[in-house]
């Protein structure tokens, strides 16, 4: 393990999630969210010399964390294109897929990325990968009030979504948003001091989800797993907020992200997966004490049925 990877990100639910994959030591696995590589390294430790691990990350900052291992292949791209990249590398089926969603500690701790309200001087960027077209500043300066309200309501689940959108639109008429501090000053006009710690993270989360099209990427990613997984292959997903978790839960239960039950001619429910745990697994008190950023993590796992037709 490199020093850089140690500080880059501390993996959440590490053993629980890799155990959940029920690793076949000669299998083919995907880590859709490489980050600091904690989950990838644990998977590699459980694989033999003929196995393969393909990891994805859309952020080029992860490159110094890549293991030097002939069984490992890195794809520096969005996991929403997972199936195409795997096909390009000659892989049609895999034995397990893990995704540890969202941003890494590196994103929060590197002020120039603009993900954290702790760094007022930082440009308000929030792109996970430099391929993404729009920065959060562009969104704040150009999106309509209705669009901003929808983002804060849907992705931040903020009661004050309308007021926040209104205040942003009024503020940008005087001065365009460039830095995190510009947004904080604007929010401070309407959010009481004692509510800042609850509200600011939700505003930042909402903008980040929109900038990176996180929900669309997750939907496309999940939909590809049905065809990619071999019979009895496992899908393990760690999510960090209720929107992600709802989508993952729906998908694992029904095979579609809307959670619509599909029935056969006889009225029997058809679903590609068997749930490995009915309830999500969450970190215990010890893990939360050691790594407070793991506190909202939820792990869900499903196994591909051996008899499901694609
Ligand atoms: C929570 S971190 C993963 C940490 C990792 N499991 C570890 O042990 O260090 C999430 C990572 O996924 C990446 N990511 C998020 N959404 C992505 C997407 N749609 N495609 C590819 N990578 C993505 C982020 O850049 C970040 O590095």
Describe this structure in words.
With 310 residues, the protein is α/β, with parallel strands linked by helices. The chain folds into 2 domains: 3-105 and 214-304, Vaccinia Virus protein VP39 (Rossmann fold, 3-Layer(aba) Sandwich), CATH 3.40.50.150; 133-211, Putative methyltransferase TM0872, insert domain (DNA polymerase, domain 1). The chain has helices spanning 3-8, 14-20, 38-45, 82-88, 105-109, 136-142, 145-156, 161-174, 180-188, 196-211, 214-228, 242-254, 285-290; strands at 28-31, 52-56, 72-75, 94-100, 229-239, 262-263, 269-270, 273-275, 298-304. The strands form 2 sheets. A 7-stranded mixed β-sheet has the order 3-2-1-4-5-9-8, with helices on both faces. It has a two-stranded antiparallel sheet with strand order 6-7. Helix 2 packs across helix 3. The chain is globular. The relative contact order is 0.13. The model has no long low-confidence stretch (mean pLDDT 94). Bound molecules: S-adenosylmethionine. The site of S-adenosylmethionine (SAM) has 22 residues, from helix 3.
Provide keyphrases for this structure.
310 residues; alpha/beta; DNA polymerase, domain 1; two-stranded antiparallel sheet; 15% strand; binds S-adenosylmethionine
Low-pLDDT stretches are: none
Distance between the termini: 39 Å
Order of helices and strands: HHEHEEHEHHHHHHHEHEEEHE
- What is the C-alpha radius of gyration, as a whole number of Å? 20 Å
Roughly what is the average pLDDT, rounded to an integer? 94
Order of strands, widest sheet: 3-2-1-4-5-9-8
Question: What is the CATH first-level class name of the largest domain?
Answer: Alpha Beta
Number of strands: 9
The best one-word shape is globular
Number of domains in the coordinates? 2
Estimate what percentage of residues fall within beta strands: 5-15%
Any idea what the CATH architecture of the largest domain is?
3-Layer(aba) Sandwich
The major beta sheet can be summarized as: 7 strands, mixed
Structural class: alpha/beta
CATH superfamily of the largest domain: Vaccinia Virus protein VP39
Ligand species:
S-adenosylmethionine
